[in-house]
């Protein structure tokens, strides 16, 4: 960003460029990585039709943790396919 606008260096992190399209992934990954070995073995359960579910799903996939993601019956088909 141009320093003339702010008087300072400004660094921007584009969260929309995350694989899941949202900042929710960072929090989900932090949580999954903080699980004890026993918790990791049992897996996780979450309910979401949006970015939270996508973030948790990606984090579990990366860390090899089994996930049960609960979606409502009226979830948009595009969200279900994600």
């Amino acid at each position: 960003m141009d320093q003339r606008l702010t008087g300072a260096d400004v660094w921007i992190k584009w969260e929309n460029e995350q694989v899941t399209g949202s900042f929710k992934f960072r929090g989900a990954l932090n949580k999954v990585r903080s699980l004890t070995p026993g918790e990791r073995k049992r897996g996780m359960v979450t309910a979401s039709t949006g970015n939270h579910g996508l973030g948790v799903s990606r984090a579990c996939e990366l860390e090899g943790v089994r996930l049960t993601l609960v979606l409502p019956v009226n979830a948009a088909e595009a969200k279900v396919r994600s």
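The first strand starts at residue 44 and ends at 47. The chain has five helices and two strands.
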